[in-house]
């Protein structure tokens, strides 16, 4: 059953106008993600992912290493690069596709949100400047945030309809989120804390019996759906096994060979989590401590949201407050507000640097109350003016331009005129004129049987260039073998280093 208002549902014949509107939003979102996708040269962080993806494509060897990001990015990029060639656009295409389809997740919340709010949610997910920019960026943050929203939406959809398929969808989406980025792990406690606050709202409002009743209903639901939950667990484990299983190297066929399956399962469910905990928790608790001071990290996170996601931030605050102080608060709106608020503190703690892309993870959650705020604002404007009133047209243009202006402010210093001192690009976005230099280098390398690239300097020519790729120690020689490059450092004897070649810019190799 729904706790939302479905009075706004409108249908014309067999055409569901809300679904059609969301479909139009998805089409526009895909256009915004794919248009001129290869125009911006690879950010150095993208270059690292592109470099390791090319090595994986060449050798067939890959295994999960937390410092290199989640495995889904490498597995998907290997296919897109293999199909469409080693170009910037091809490498980014999977992330762009998922980011463009993300507004469709708004339909999972239809029922808890009315039809106008559902379309507003899709619009915020499609046009939020931060989501648009990092959907055109080779990182797993948009993937993790998007699949995380699908998990929440699947739970809401199951609650509203009683259907079982959302449970299986949510289980698969959770595995995909965890395989996209380690930051997805932060979402798990965030969801629990937000759910606890939603449950406690009844006590705060002076009806503690309602909170106890909700808790009892949850226990009864778990018992009644034990079989479906068990199936969902197997879906999660199966998807996670496929994604986290090592490729090539010592495990051979891996999943498809009975002799290597036990080692693959052990890696996916034992060694991979141990590696993550060792890097993100144990390593940071052991001296010398790595990471940021808490307050500067939170301040940097907040500045990024204000500068690049202010439309969602403003509408989210309006929607949360409006919902909070009205009778019959909807749990999904409160959940989104609480989760986004605690995420403002949790993600800076989880991050090992003040990185703007970590702000992506709270935007979809903030869009839940943001949809309520945006729909309320649009309805208020419509109530005050007729469609033929110039004031109505001006108001609509002002609301629509909010996202455009925010995206323009986000992209101007990175796409139009990238500068080395850009904090938003983490001081690592090459200027657009790098393409000419790369084209000249590739022309010189064409048909050359000797060394392609020579790195000179202590920072570029190091053993770590191929000592720390996402492969097992026994397979590192395979990654370094056959690389036609050399390096010199302060007059030392040249030695092989791993470098990647592509038909476009793939950035410089960088260990992490």
UniProtKB/TrEMBL annotation:
Organism ancestry: Archaea, Methanobacteriati, Methanobacteriota, Stenosarchaea group, Halobacteria
Name of the protein described by the UniProt record: Flippase activity-associated protein Agl23
Keywords from the named record: Membrane, Transmembrane, Transmembrane helix
Annotated region described as Disordered, given as residue ranges: 477-512
Organism, as annotated: Halobaculum litoreum
TM ranges: 20-39, 94-113, 119-135, 142-159, 165-198, 232-249, 300-320, 332-351, 357-378, 390-416
Entry-linked InterPro entries: CHP03663 (IPR019962)
Ranges of compositional bias, category Polar residues: 485-512
């Amino acid at each position: 059953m729904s706790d939302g208002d479905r009075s706004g549902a409108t249908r014309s014949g067999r055409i569901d106008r809300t679904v059609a509107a969301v479909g139009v939003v998805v089409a526009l979102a895909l256009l915004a993600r794919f248009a001129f996708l290869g125009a911006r040269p690879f950010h150095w962080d993208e270059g690292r992912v592109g470099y390791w993806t090319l090595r994986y494509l060449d050798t067939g060897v890959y295994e999960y290493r937390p410092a290199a990001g989640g495995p889904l990015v490498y597995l998907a990029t290997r296919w897109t690069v293999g199909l469409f060639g080693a170009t910037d656009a091809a490498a980014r295409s999977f992330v762009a596709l998922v980011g463009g389809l993300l507004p469709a997740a708004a339909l999972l919340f239809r029922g808890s949100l009315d039809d106008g709010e559902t379309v507003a949610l899709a619009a915020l997910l499609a046009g939020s400047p931060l989501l648009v920019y990092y959907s055109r960026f080779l990182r797993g943050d948009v993937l993790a945030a998007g699949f995380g929203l699908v998990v929440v939406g699947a739970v809401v959809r199951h609650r509203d309809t009683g259907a079982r398929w959302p449970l299986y969808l949510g289980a698969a989406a959770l595995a995909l989120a965890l395989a996209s980025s380690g930051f997805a792990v932060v979402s798990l406690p965030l969801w629990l804390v937000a759910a606890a606050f939603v449950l406690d709202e009844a006590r705060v409002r002076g009806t503690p019996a309602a909170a106890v009743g909700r808790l009892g209903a949850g226990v009864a639901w778990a018992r009644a759906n034990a079989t479906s939950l068990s199936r969902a667990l197997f879906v999660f484990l199966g998807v996670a096994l496929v994604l986290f299983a090592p490729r090539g190297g010592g495990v051979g066929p891996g999943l498809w060979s009975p002799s290597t399956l036990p080692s693959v399962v052990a890696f996916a469910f034992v060694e991979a989590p141990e590696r993550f905990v060792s890097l993100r928790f144990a390593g940071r608790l052991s001296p010398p401590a790595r990471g940021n001071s808490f307050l500067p990290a939170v301040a940097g996170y907040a500045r990024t949201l204000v500068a690049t996601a202010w439309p969602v931030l403003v509408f989210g605050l309006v929607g949360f407050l409006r919902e909070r102080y009205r009778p019959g608060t909807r749990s999904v709106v409160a959940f989104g507000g609480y989760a986004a608020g605690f995420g403002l503190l949790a993600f800076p703690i989880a991050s090992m640097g003040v990185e703007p892309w970590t702000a992506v993870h709270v935007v979809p959650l903030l869009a839940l109350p943001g949809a309520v705020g945006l729909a309320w604002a649009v309805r208020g404007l419509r109530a005050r003016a007729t469609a033929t009133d110039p004031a109505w047209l001006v108001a609509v243009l002002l609301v629509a331009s909010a996202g455009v202006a925010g995206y323009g402010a986000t992209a101007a210093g990175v796409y139009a005129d990238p500068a080395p001192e850009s904090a938003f690009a983490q001081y690592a976005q090459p200027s657009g004129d790098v393409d000419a230099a790369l084209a000249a280098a590739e022309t010189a390398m064409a048909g050359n049987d000797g060394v392609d690239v020579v790195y000179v300097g202590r920072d570029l020519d190091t053993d770590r260039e191929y000592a720390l790729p996402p492969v097992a120690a026994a397979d590192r020689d395979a990654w370094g073998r056959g690389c036609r490059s050399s390096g010199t450092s302060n007059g030392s004897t040249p030695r092989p280093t791993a470098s990647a070649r592509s038909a476009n810019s793939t950035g410089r190799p960088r260990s992490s």
